[in-house]
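Every protein is a chain of amino acids, and every chain bends into a shape of its own. The fold becomes a row of whole numbers, each drawn from a learned catalogue of backbone shapes. The protein below has been through that process, and both of its lines are reproduced in full.
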Amino acid sequence: MNTALALIFLTVAVSYGWGMRGDLLGHGKGAVVPGLLLGLGMVLLTGDAKLLRCAWIPAAFGAVGMFPGGGMTYGETIGLVLHRSAPARGRTGLAFKGFLWFFCAAGLVCFGIRLVSLRCYSLADTLLLFAAVCLARPVGMRLFNRPGGLRFSPTRQESWGENLLILLVLACVFAVHGDWFSLIAASVAGLGGALGWLAGITLFDLTWRGLWLKKLTRAGFCDGWKIMEFSIGALGGLCSGLGLLAASALFPDALSGGWFASADGLSAYIPQTLSLILGLVWCALLPLHALFTELTRKKPWGERVEDWLLDVLYCAVPLLLLGLGSVHTALFYAIPVCFYVLAEEVFLDKRTSLPARIVLAAVSALLTAAAAALSTALPKLACVLVCTAVYVGFELALALRDRDRTRPGLRALGARFSVDLFFLVTSAVSIALWAAAA
């Protein structure tokens, strides 16, 4: 394993993933892509051949860890900086949210790495984290989202309390077990998320005021918002890798002599047959959530319940199944579910007919069945390809569909030309780096 290549992969791939999150999906579902790439990159950086064989599990932990951050509102916080209404408060809020986001993501990747490689964590730890994720949104909103409290958005509800509670529980689990390796790695990753937001909002602000890339902005080829997102992902990914290296240097025995129940990294809690059944049941619940959303969208309580169910289905439930040792859940999250959330966003909206939803659910079921049949024989490169090539393909198709036909040549694409060019380059680089370093 080449450490430099793995670090570059983390920087480039997470930068790409964060940008793609903001372009196609957004919110928690969009965070699945950079989360998977973060998990894969951190496993690659360990240089452990056994961990790499079961990289599906830490990668899925990365998706689980990134997901709750997608619920944090930050548009109005950015506005505090751009419109000069409260720039210091805005920057503080963005750095704070960035720290929460990347600490939780990298922390859960480390939890996954230690879970499959060492007898470091028990079933009780997994159950505790599962309960924390289930309760984090309602409790966090009640405790911290109050008028006059620590708020960074003038009118919108703050949900960073959810991520703060997950961080506190995760940090306590690390401390109780003396897992300073994971605590240090997650803290440095969180610092990277904070620095990423500060760098990103600074570049966005310079672009917004015409002090940087002025000609490109005037020509319509520059998108300050995307520059901000690319910067967040790059620094967050880089510092997640640096945190892992720092923790490994301080605790060189943390990942050596690990215990593996099997070549796939399965724990002793459940057999593979049960792992497959539980993973299939979880996948079946996801289209049902889309149907529930359609049926309750006019209810006054519909949005609150929908957001909570999203956290439970895409974060808490897979976290529990992964903790039980379900490699199938990890495999499904990395390929069919990663595809499903994209297809649901692109092809479906609240006005789409029920038959269309059934067709999408059927396609997702076929992909899940194929992944189950191939099981862990699938190369990890397949996950990288879904996160990059598949997503970029959809992005380019949508860019061509939505182009401004009144403008000639590349001007018809506007800022999407430079953004999509970045996606193409970074996705190709990510695939090449993974193939070279894995």
